[in-house]
């Protein structure tokens, strides 16, 4: 049976690669991107198996709306791949407030908003898996990636906590 997979940040990078691989194996993919036109190649190649969704993960309300759109379109969501994010390069002392907030909005709060939106759906379905995309830089640090490191440490802490919160529901967090 094919899975219904919601992937954030599917317009390029790992998100695009995973979307193509999952579609090729026969799954259905809700692919999100800030610019929905960046998903046209997936739609051209895979037709109705891909559901393009415009989403900026920085917007909490939009995250909840996207999850509801996907559920309404496919009837369920089996897997969330929380992938959207970006790397900010620069020394901590040179990072502006706006850059720091943007890094955390996307890399941490985007993950949080999607988790908050998807867990009730998966709880109601009594099934589902959440895959949080982090980095080895959430375990160790490298210079000039301080804010990126911090955002991924935060994702790891959030993910470990969520895993304990949903443990009684079964294996919802990978």
TrEMBL record:
<dbReference type="InterPro" id="IPR036291">
    <property type="entry name" value="NAD(P)-bd_dom_sf"/>
</dbReference>
<keyword id="KW-0560">Oxidoreductase</keyword>
<dbReference type="GO" id="GO:0016491">
    <property type="term" value="F:oxidoreductase activity"/>
</dbReference>
<comment type="similarity">
    <text>Belongs to the short-chain dehydrogenases/reductases (SDR) family.</text>
</comment>
<dbReference type="InterPro" id="IPR020904">
    <property type="entry name" value="Sc_DH/Rdtase_CS"/>
</dbReference>
<dbReference type="InterPro" id="IPR002347">
    <property type="entry name" value="SDR_fam"/>
</dbReference>
<protein>
    <submittedName>
        <fullName>Short subunit dehydrogenase</fullName>
    </submittedName>
</protein>
<dbReference type="Pfam" id="PF00106">
    <property type="entry name" value="adh_short"/>
</dbReference>
<dbReference type="InterPro" id="IPR051911">
    <property type="entry name" value="SDR_oxidoreductase"/>
</dbReference>
């Amino acid at each position: 049976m094919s899975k219904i997979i919601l992937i954030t940040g599917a317009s390029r990078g790992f998100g695009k690669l995973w979307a193509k691989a999952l579609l090729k194996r026969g799954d259905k993919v809700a692919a999100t991107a800030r610019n929905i036109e960046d998903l046209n190649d997936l739609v051209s190649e895979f037709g109705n198996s891909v559901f393009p969704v415009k989403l900026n993960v920085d917007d909490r309300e939009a995250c909840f709306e996207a999850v509801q759109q996907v559920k309404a379109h496919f009837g369920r969501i089996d897997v969330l791949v929380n992938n959207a994010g970006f790397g900010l390069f620069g020394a901590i002392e040179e990072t502006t407030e706006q850059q720091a907030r943007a890094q955390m909005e996307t890399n941490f709060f985007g993950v949080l908003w999607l988790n908050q939106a998807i867990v009730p759906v998966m709880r109601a379905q009594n099934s589902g898996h959440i895959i949080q995309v982090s980095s080895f830089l959430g375990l160790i640090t490298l210079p000039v990636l301080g804010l990126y490191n911090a955002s991924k440490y935060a994702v790891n802490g959030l993910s470990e906590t969520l895993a304990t919160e949903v443990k009684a529901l079964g294996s919802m967090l990978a």
